[in-house]
Amino acid sequence: MPIASNQMDSAKIIAASHKHPRPNTVFTYGTAGFRMHANKLDSVMFRVGLLAVLRSKFHHGRVIGVMVTASHNPEEDNGVKLVEPLGEMLVQDWEVYATQLANAATDDDLISAVNAIVTSQSLSMSTLARVIIGHDTRPSCPVLLASLQDGVDALGGELIQAGLKTTPQLHYLTRCLNTAGTPDAYGEPTEEGYFAKLSEAYKRIVDKNAPKTQVTVDAANGVGAPMMKKLIDVIGTQHLNVNLVNDAVYVPGTLNHDCGADYVKVGQKPPVGLDLKVGERYCSLDGDADRIVYYYKSQDDIFRLLDGDKIATLAAGFIMDLVRKSSVKVTRSDSSVSEVHVGLVQTAYANGSSTTYVKNTLNVPVVFTPTGVKYLHHEAEHFDVGVYFEANGHGTVLFSREAIRAFKSSKGSTTEAQDALDTLVALTDLINQTVGDALSDMLMVEAILACKNWSPSDWDAGYTDLPSRQEKVKVSNRLAFVAINADTELEKPDGLQAKINEQVAKFPSGRSFVRPSGTEDVVRVYAEADTQVNCDLLANTICGIVFDEFGGVGQRPEKFVKLH
């Protein structure tokens, strides 16, 4: 039963905690939440249950989401992350609390950590807390869900079991529950409501332009497989012709194995066993269906990847075109009227060719942020229409309240203008604005390609990626490296940035940056240039400088270039 007094039952928390002893491991809540081998997560899950209740109390009883997944990691791993009331990722201040709770070594430490949160955030323990929990297909989920439930129960929270869900579905449900009955109601807070919203919006866009050819979807043998089947059933094969592969969800050892978005992106090759036919469309989801990449085989038999950069440019170009055709204007809070501000948000890892294409050909402003979805999402909120995708295929499009109001209330002066407005309104429903969503993003891509009557090669023709290379260098202290300007330059150590600039200037279309890892004592080196040979030479020269002059440790890789 929910606790209805302002007292915390410490004895109940301690008793429950004893069922979930903490291993001798140091835990860190990062961008992906907690993620590691599943057999280390029992105590973490219990403590995340406590944290979710406290976070709900902070939000005066609004629903907090908890997703149990390890995304593209191997099947034996698992993880957990919290979702804010409007579907956002957990705020950074509370990531610190999550880490502190997970690492509390004794009963007293755990109670002290809980009390510190209650006191510092002025929480009322009499506020009833609600938590919704979803999970992917990993075999470790049932045991970990029970641990999580024990944590929620220990602080008297109310638990809503969402069951098997993709990560984006859990974000969607969380936002729907918290906006129901308000002017910002996001949708029906059920799985059926999710599919209906996407399906109806997609069909409004494609209407008479349904894709005439099949798309093959690699579901990574994960939760995306059953959800894709349900989506196809709701939409109907006359509107969406999908060949689903890698859907062996409960066959042990298959999740993300030789398949999935990460395998395809990192390896620059199709999933094992998938024989690509020239000109046909293919895409791969990841294990929890929040990432997607497309690919195809060209006329000259080359594997061609259409990654997050390509998806972002496709979306930004299509939306910019609709805005121009509609001539829609936005009324601001001060009653002034102005153009719709469309923008693309990228990280330093976005290919330089994509940035040039978006700025110069699409005439869409580009803003850079540090690496990490939370930075991209936050920056995208500054536009009326903010597009962001990481190269790995995780991303979405955000629409401001003013933009949505303008799209819905405006009347087109011509049939073309009205059609553009109708499509913009449908896009606001089709695109999951809470988080990157592989199912939603796939429908967006399919709809755009259908409207443009484009093949994969038509899409790919906008720009050609510059050759790129990513390397890492083991260093004695990664904290000695301080990145600035959205990770594109180094402030420290002194002198290194000047040396990087000196090398970059030697190569046509050269670009390189060095940034510290967030988790291990390595620095990551990224390089681009006009040819793969030049790109590799630039990357290995920078790696050599870092290793030789700025604290490299361990055996020196032979490929690192020695300047002196």
Automatic annotation (TrEMBL):
Its cofactor is Mg(2+). It comes from the Eukaryota. Keywords: Carbohydrate metabolism, Isomerase, Magnesium, Metal-binding, Phosphoprotein. Residues 195-293, 307-454 form the Phosphoacetylglucosamine mutase AMG1 domain. Its EC number is 5.4.2.3. The active site is at 71 (phosphoserine intermediate). Pathway: Nucleotide-sugar biosynthesis; UDP-N-acetyl-alpha-D-glucosamine biosynthesis; N-acetyl-alpha-D-glucosamine 1-phosphate from alpha-D-glucosamine 6-phosphate (route I): step 2/2. Belongs to the phosphohexose mutase family. It catalyses: N-acetyl-alpha-D-glucosamine 1-phosphate = N-acetyl-D-glucosamine 6-phosphate. This is Phosphoacetylglucosamine mutase.
